[in-house]
C-alpha cells in the first residue's frame, strides 16, 4: 500500500514544481515583454478602480545598437612607477567619466584594460554624434590648479568697461552683417567661414558644425534654424548671447520626436539635491493632495505656489523642449506617453515626486549646419568675474598625492608633496590667504576647498575634513591624475549611426527567431515528445535570460546578441545528451521513471564538463579582450549557466510530469522507446 502513496506524493510534488516554474516563466515573460504586463495592469485598474503603475525594465543598448561612438586610447605611463600605474589610470578614468558626463551622454562606459605592457582606455558614448568634440574633450590630459578667492568678482563693471564691451560687440555685429550680405550676393559661404570665423574647429572645415542635436552649446542656434529650408541661409544674424552667427542649413534627417513639458516637484529629506526636511511619506501625501486639485488650466499657478524646484516661481516648472535620452528614464517614459495637456499620475524619481504636464510635441530633426561665428565680448573677457582667481600653482608642481591617516584621530586625509618651485608658490599662497579658503580645481571643477590655517612651508600639505576612506582615496586619485604626466592618444575610432543600429537590432531579432525555429524543428523531428518539452524549456530559457539581461542590467551590443543567439543552440546540447542517454536506459529494460532519473544522472557529468570549458573560455575572453568581445563573453556565460538550470530542472520536471507509465506503454515511440525495449 505504501508504493501508490509514494507515487501520488511524488506526482503532487511534480505538479507543485511545474506550477512554480510556470509562475517564474510568466514573471520573466512580463519583464521581457512589458506590453503583456501593461495589458494586465490596465485590466486590473479598470476592474478595481485602482491606479497601479506600469513597471518597466528597459533593455540597455550599447552604442552599436543605439548609435554612437567607440574610442580606444593608449596611455603613456613611461614616467610613472609600476606600483602607481593602476591608481594613475583609475584617476584618469575618473576625470574622463566626469568630462563625458558633462557632455550629457546617457550611460557612458569608460573602461581600463591592460594588453601586455600597454594600458588602454576604452570609451563608449551611446547617442553622441559630435565625434570631434568627444575626441577633443576626452583626449586632453587632466588639468590641476590651485585658486584663491577673487575679491573683485562681485564688483560691478565701470562705465568705461561697459563701453568697451559695447564697442567691441558692435564691431563684431557689423562684421557678421557684412558677411551675411556677401553670402546673399553669391559669395562662397565656405570661403568666408575659413577666412573670418572665430571658431578654429569649424573654421578649418568651412564652417561645418556637422549634425546638431537638441541639447548642447548650439541649442539656441538650432531653435532659430528649425524653420529654415535645406540649402537656405537664415535671414539676418543670429545672436545667442555668446556669439553672432551667419548660419546655413545644409541637410536634415529625422531623429524621432521631442516634447515640451512642465512639472511640479515635491522633495523629501534624502532625495537628490533636496533641502527639504519632510519625510518621504509626508512628501507623497502632499503631492497626492495636489493631484486632486491640479488641472491643465491652473498648472502654472500650482507650480509657482507649491513646486520645490529651484527657480520654479520664475520658470513655472517649464523644462523646455527635450528628446529621449535627456531626462532620467522613468520621467522620460512617463512624459512621452502623455497626450498634449494631459497631467501624469504621481511619479517618483531620485529627485522627488513629480506631477508632469505635457505642453507640446513635435517631430525632431537633426540639422547639419554651416556657420560663420563672431564671438561676443563678455564681462569675463574684460575682468575676471569668476569667484576664484587662478594662481601660478598647478599640477605641474605637485609630485605626489596620497591617502594617509591622522596619527591622533585616525581620520582619513590626503597628503600633498610639491617640488621646489611648488613649495615656494604654495608657501606664498598660504601666507597670503591665512584664514581664507583656497580651491583645488581639476578640469576646471572644484574638488576640494580647504581653509588655510597657517602658512605652510617645506612643500608638504594636508587636506583634511570629514572624509571617508573611499572619499579620501578618490580625492588623492583625482589630484594624482592631474599631477602625473599621463597623456593619452587615440588608436581606434568607430562610429555607428542610429539607423544602422536599429537595422542591426531588427536583423539580429530575425536571426534569433530563425535560429529558434530551426532548433525547435530539429528537436521535434528527432526526439518527438521529449523534443517538444525541450522546446518549451528553450522558450523558458529565452524569457528568463532576457529578463536577467534587463534586471542586472547587461548592456546589449551586437556581439552580446551573437552570444545570446549562440547560447540558444548550446542550450539544447544538454537535452540532446540526456535524450540519447534515455534511449540507452530504455534499451536496458528500465522502467520509465527509473530510466529518466538515470539518463539525467549519467548525462550530468558530460553537461557539467562541457559547460565548464565554455565558461573558462568566456572568462578568458572577458578578462583579456576589448569591450566589444566582453559583451559576447558575458551574455554567453550567463546563457550557459542558465541553460544548465533549464536543462536539468525544467526539462526533467516536465518530462517526468507527462511520462506517465500507462501513456508510455500505449505510445512508446512518442517517448523514444521501442516496443522491443519493453
UniProtKB/TrEMBL annotation:
Cited SUPFAM superfamilies: FKBP-like, Multidrug efflux transporter AcrB transmembrane domain
GO MF entry, a single one: protein-transporting ATPase activity
Gene Ontology CC annotations of this record: plasma membrane
Entry superkingdom: Bacteria
GO biological process: intracellular protein transmembrane transport; protein targeting; protein transport by the Sec complex
Gene3D superfamilies per UniProt: 3.10.50.40, 3.30.1360.200, 3.30.70.3400, Multidrug efflux transporter AcrB transmembrane domain
Residue span(s) of domain PpiC: 148-251, 256-360
Residue ranges of the TM segments: 507-527, 532-552, 558-579, 632-655
Stretches the record annotates as Disordered: 142-179
UniProt topology in membrane: Multi-pass membrane protein
Main location: membrane
Sorted UniProt keywords: Cell membrane, Isomerase, Membrane, Protein transport, Rotamase, Translocation, Transmembrane, Transmembrane helix, Transport
Compartment list: Cell membrane
PROSITE patterns: PPIC_PPIASE_2
Ranges annotated as biased composition (Basic and acidic residues): 153-179
A Pfam entry, by short name: SecDF_P1_head
Similarity section: Belongs to the SecD/SecF family. SecD subfamily.
Function: Part of the Sec protein translocase complex. Interacts with the SecYEG preprotein conducting channel. SecDF uses the proton motive force (PMF) to complete protein translocation after the ATP-dependent function of SecA.
Subunit and partners: Forms a complex with SecF. Part of the essential Sec protein translocation apparatus which comprises SecA, SecYEG and auxiliary proteins SecDF. Other proteins may also be involved.
Name of the protein in question: Protein translocase subunit SecD
Amino acid at each position: 500500500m505504501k508504493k501508490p502513496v509514494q507515487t501520488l506524493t511524488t506526482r503532487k510534488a511534480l505538479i507543485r514544481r511545474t506550477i512554480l516554474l510556470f509562475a517564474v516563466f510568466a514573471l520573466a515573460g512580463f519583464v521581457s515583454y512589458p506590453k503583456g504586463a501593461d495589458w494586465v495592469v490596465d485590466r486590473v485598474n479598470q476592474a478595481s478602480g485602482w491606479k497601479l503603475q506600469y513597471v518597466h525594465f528597459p533593455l540597455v543598448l550599447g552604442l552599436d545598437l543605439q548609435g554612437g561612438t567607440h574610442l580606444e586610447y593608449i596611455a603613456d605611463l613611461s614616467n610613472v612607477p609600476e606600483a602607481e600605474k593602476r591608481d594613475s589610470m583609475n584617476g584618469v578614468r575618473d576625470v574622463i567619466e566626469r568630462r563625458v558626463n558633462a557632455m550629457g551622454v546617457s550611460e557612458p562606459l569608460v573602461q581600463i584594460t591592460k594588453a601586455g605592457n600597454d594600458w588602454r582606455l576604452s570609451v563608449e558614448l551611446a547617442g553622441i554624434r559630435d565625434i570631434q568634440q568627444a575626441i577633443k574633450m576626452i583626449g586632453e590630459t587632466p588639468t590641476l590648479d590651485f585658486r584663491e578667492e577673487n575679491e573683485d568678482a562681485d564688483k560691478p563693471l565701470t562705465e568705461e568697461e561697459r563701453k568697451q564691451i559695447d564697442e567691441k560687440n558692435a564691431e563684431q555685429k557689423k562684421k557678421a552683417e557684412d558677411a551675411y550680405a556677401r553670402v546673399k550676393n553669391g559669395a562662397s559661404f565656405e570661403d568666408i567661414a575659413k577666412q573670418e570665423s572665430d571658431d578654429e574647429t569649424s573654421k578649418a572645415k568651412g564652417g561645418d558644425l556637422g549634425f546638431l542635436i537638441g541639447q548642447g552649446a548650439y541649442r539656441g542656434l538650432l531653435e532659430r534654424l528649425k524653420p529654415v529650408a535645406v540649402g537656405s541661409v537664415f535671414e539676418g544674424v543670429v545672436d545667442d548671447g555668446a556669439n553672432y552667427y551667419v548660419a546655413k542649413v545644409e541637410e536634415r534627417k529625422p531623429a524621432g520626436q521631442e516634447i515640451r513639458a512642465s512639472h511640479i516637484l515635491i522633495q523629501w529629506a534624502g532625495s537628490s539635491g533636496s533641502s527639504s526636511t519632510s519625510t518621504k511619506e509626508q512628501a507623497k501625501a502632499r503631492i497626492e493632495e495636489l493631484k486632486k486639485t491640479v488641472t491643465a488650466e491652473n498648472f502654472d499657478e500650482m507650480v509657482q505656489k507649491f513646486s520645490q524646484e529651484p527657480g520654479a516661481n520664475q520658470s513655472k516648472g517649464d523644462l523646455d523642449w527635450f528628446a529621449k535620452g535627456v531626462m532620467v528614464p522613468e520621467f522620460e517614459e512617463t512624459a512621452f506617453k502623455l497626450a498634449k495637456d494631459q497631467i501624469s499620475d504621481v511619479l517618483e524619481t531620485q529627485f522627488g515626486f513629480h506631477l508632469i504636464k505635457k505642453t507640446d510635441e513635435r517631430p525632431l530633426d537633426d540639422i547639419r549646419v554651416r556657420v560663420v561665428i563672431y564671438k561676443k565680448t563678455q564681462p569675463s573677457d574684460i575682468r575676471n568675474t569668476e569667484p576664484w582667481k587662478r594662481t601660478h600653482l598647478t599640477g605641474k608642481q605637485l609630485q605626489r598625492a596620497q591617502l594617509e591617516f591622522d596619527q591622533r584621530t585616525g581620520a582619513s586625509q590626503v597628503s600633498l608633496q610639491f617640488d621646489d618651485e611648488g613649495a615656494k608658490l604654495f608657501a606664498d599662497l598660504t601666507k597670503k590667504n591665512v584664514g581664507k579658503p583656497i580651491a583645488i580645481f581639476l578640469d576646471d571643477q572644484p574638488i576640494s576647498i580647504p581653509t588655510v590655517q597657517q602658512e605652510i612651508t617645506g612643500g608638504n600639505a594636508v587636506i583634511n575634513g570629514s572624509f571617508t576612506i573611499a572619499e579620501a582615496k578618490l580625492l588623492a586619485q583625482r589630484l594624482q591624475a592631474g599631477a602625473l604626466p599621463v597623456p593619452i592618444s587615440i588608436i581606434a575610432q568607430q562610429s555607428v549611426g542610429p539607423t544602422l543600429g536599429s537595422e542591426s537590432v531588427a536583423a539580429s531579432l530575425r536571426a534569433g527567431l530563425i535560429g529558434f525555429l530551426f532548433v525547435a524543428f530539429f528537436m521535434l523531428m528527432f526526439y518527438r515528445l521529449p523534443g517538444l518539452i525541450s522546446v518549451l524549456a528553450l522558450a523558458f530559457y529565452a524569457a528568463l535570460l532576457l529578463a536577467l539581461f534587463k534586471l542586472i542590467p547587461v548592456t546589449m551590443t551586437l556581439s552580446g546578441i551573437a552570444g545570446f543567439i549562440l547560447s540558444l543552440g548550446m542550450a539544447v546540447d544538454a537535452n540532446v545528451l540526456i535524450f540519447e542517454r534515455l534511449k540507452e536506459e530504455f534499451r536496458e529494460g528500465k522502467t520509465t521513471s527509473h530510466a529518466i532519473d538515470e539518463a539525467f544522472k549519467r548525462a550530468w557529468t558530460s553537461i557539467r564538463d562541457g559547460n565548464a570549458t565554455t565558461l573558462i573560455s568566456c572568462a578568458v575572453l572577458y578578462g583579456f579582450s576589448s569591450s566589444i568581445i566582453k559583451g559576447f563573453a558575458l551574455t554567453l556565460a550567463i546563457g550557459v549557466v542558465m541553460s544548465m538550470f533549464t536543462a536539468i530542472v525544467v526539462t526533467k520536471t516536465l518530462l517526468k510530469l507527462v511520462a506517465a507509465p500507462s501513456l508510455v506503454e500505449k505510445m512508446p515511440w512518442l517517448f523514444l522507446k521501442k516496443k522491443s525495449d519493453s
